[in-house]
Amino acid sequence: MHKSNSTYFLDLDVSRMHHLSSLMRLGMHKVHFQSEPREKDEGKFHVALGGVTCTFKKEIKPYQGFEVWTRVLSWDKKWLYVVCHIVKRGAVKPKSYTLQPWKKGAKPRESGGDDKGVNGLDKGGKAPHPAIIAVSVAKYVFKRGRKTIPPEEALRAAELLPPKPESDLKSPQTPPETPIVEGSAPENAIVGVVSNLVPDAQVRRPSLEVNLAGWSWDNVEAERLKGMDVAQHMGGIDKALDAWTGDERAALGEF
């Protein structure tokens, strides 16, 4: 007996949206209220889930504790990719909690310890962390009506990116698997609608102080491209749309 695989997606959805709302609150407000003039019928700003995939590595037994670790993996011209790792509870403890500064973090490890990176790999980058139970990648699109808001624009509005060099005028490259099609986000996949935001004077930014010291645009771009090595494969799933033949000749049954 173990946790049903279908229930993982609810836990993942809650974790992703809490993560995105914490990071993007300021950016969503700016994009919604402070962007260029809009047409009356342009529509409201919202975030839509465009796809999700999950790989199960181990089972979760009854009453077994687990945690969901969520972070931004990468982005291109259209999609923001978010990765979640479901891990055994207490396997890793952060050194600090940005939004919960009152919580005690882990004590610094002594030199020579078996340090695991934030990507769940050891120093050699070969063996996955043994605490990983499942891993999931999801892609989100920012929309204002039918208009797509590039993730980089939203991240910059949230003050989560360092200055971009003037010489680098190119936007993030979009892999062939993830073409930009205006209005293509599934309408039934809306997971968050920013429609009742308070006036700008009353908005309070979350207590999230982003320390960009030592992070240049080159650092950010290197991390984005590294994440795209994983994220770009999500586009291949779209090719499965052609796998449905719609064959009307016979079926096993209707259940």
Question: What can you see in these coordinates?
Answer:
The chain has 255 residues and is α+β, with helices and mostly antiparallel strands. It contains 3 helices and 6 strands, in the order αβββββαβα. It has helices at 8-33, 151-157, 217-231; strands at residues 45-56, 66-75, 79-88, 132-144, 147-149, 190-194. Strands 1, 2, 3, 4, 5 and 6 form a 6-stranded antiparallel beta sheet that branches. A hairpin with a 2-residue loop joins β4 (132-144) and β5. α1 (8-33) packs across α2 (151-157). It is globular, with a radius of gyration of 20 Å. The relative contact order is 0.22.
Strand-helix topology:
Blueprint: H1 8-33, E1 45-56, E2 66-75, E3 79-88, E4 132-144, E5 147-149, H2 151-157, E6 190-194, H3 217-231
Antiparallel strand pairs: 1-4, 1-6, 2-3, 3-4, 4-5
Helix pairs in contact: 1-2
N→C terminal distance: 25 Å
Q: How many DSSP-defined strands?
A: 6
Sheet with the most strands? 6 strands, antiparallel
* Alpha-carbon Rg, integer: 20 Å
Helix/strand/pairing category: alpha+beta
Considering DSSP H and I runs of 4 or more, what fraction of the residues is helical?
10-25%
Beta-strand fraction estimate: 15-25%
Shape: globular
Flag low-confidence runs: 118-123, 174-207
